[in-house]
Design a protein that fits this description.
Length: 319
């Protein structure tokens, strides 16, 4: 299959490094078909890419990666995982690229690992999953990572992870047994990561690092739909003024991962502009073919389709 005759890049596509994943519930805790795909960096992954017309995957570790480890373990395991992913990419350099796993429990080491991964391993940026041991990424202890990302001119992809236990207890306890997905892709991921997106603006990180590039998945975790209202409400009398909408639209890119909704995409295009939107699937948690069929049938111009499928990613990631 080809998608409208275009080169296709997908950039929220996951795997599991066995040594790093052994520290959390994955991939052993995943369904067998998901586990098999998370552990594959070769024939199965490539065959499903070919079937769906995907030319290049930017591969990243699945949640929670190194974000819930102690500092020493995070540094050691993230570095090893990045080295092994680099080796897998080297076997298929025309089909794979990588986002680094970062040992955020040690922010200085995480900044150094980002630089090593970009300058030595050729990675295109990094992915951070949810809170780091209960702390949001906008906290100033993590700003050295943002400073380094700006200096390297690479993006940081802020990906969801399971919400804090206190949030699960307060928000989802009544429903989690019957609807376990409520804490993750159905709603909890969105609440957690959209909150992180709002906090990134309010923290002043984009003022301190005006060229910092942040990626949010799932069509921006719903934020494009809400930008006008958030901006309006934050600028009511009584609070510090903030150009929220401007900052978000200047520093954030969004992907289609796991959200193949035409109305949501059109809303995002109208709010942020097509140049900020990147094609992604969220493989293997979402399969490739539904995304390919959706984007191929989408009623947009050929120019806009090309930007979404690869043009914007080529520019952002220097591919």
């Amino acid at each position: 299959m080809t998608i409208a005759g275009k080169f296709v890049i997908a950039l929220e596509e996951h795997y599991c490094d066995e040594a790093l994943a052994a520290t959390f519930d994955g991939p052993e805790g995943r369904a067998p078909e998901i586990r098999k795909r998370l552990l594959d960096l070769g024939e199965l992954r490539l065959s499903e890419m070919d079937e769906a017309g995907i030319d290049l995957q930017v591969i990243s570790h699945s949640a929670p990666s190194a974000q819930r480890l102690d500092s020493e373990s995070a540094v050691r395991l993230a570095r090893g995982a990045n080295d092994r992913l680099h080796q897998a990419i080297a076997r298929h350099p025309d089909r794979f690229a990588g986002f680094a796993a970062l040992p955020t429990p040690d922010p200085k080491a995480a900044a150094d690992e980002l630089e090593r991964s970009v300058t030595k391993l050729g990675f295109k940026g990094a992915m951070v999953h949810g809170l780091t041991n209960g702390v949001f990424f906008d906290d100033k202890r993590f700003w050295p990572i943002m400073e380094r990302a700006q200096a390297l001119d690479v993006p940081i992809y802020l990906h969801p992870a399971v919400p804090h236990k206190a949030v699960i207890d307060a928000y989802y306890r009544d429903y989690v047994e019957k609807y376990p997905q409520i804490t993750n892709a159905a709603w909890g991921f969105t609440v957690e990561t959209a909150t992180q997106g709002v906090r990134m603006v309010l923290s002043g990180a984009f003022d301190a690092y005006p060229n910092l590039k942040i990626i949010l998945g799932h069509l921006g975790e719903g934020l494009p739909f809400l930008l006008w209202r958030i901006d309006m409400a934050l600028n009511r009398p009584g609070g510090a003024p903030v150009a929220f909408r401007d900052a978000f639209n200047r520093n954030v890119w969004i992907t289609t991962s796991g959200n193949f909704s035409t109305p949501a995409l059109i809303c995002s295009m109208l709010e942020m502009g097509v140049d900020r939107i990147l094609y992604s699937v969220d493989w293997p948690f979402v399969r490739n073919l539904p995304g390919s069929r959706w984007i191929q049938d989408l009623q947009v111009s050929n120019e806009d389709r090309e930007k979404i499928l690869s043009g914007n990613a080529k520019r952002l990631l220097k591919l």
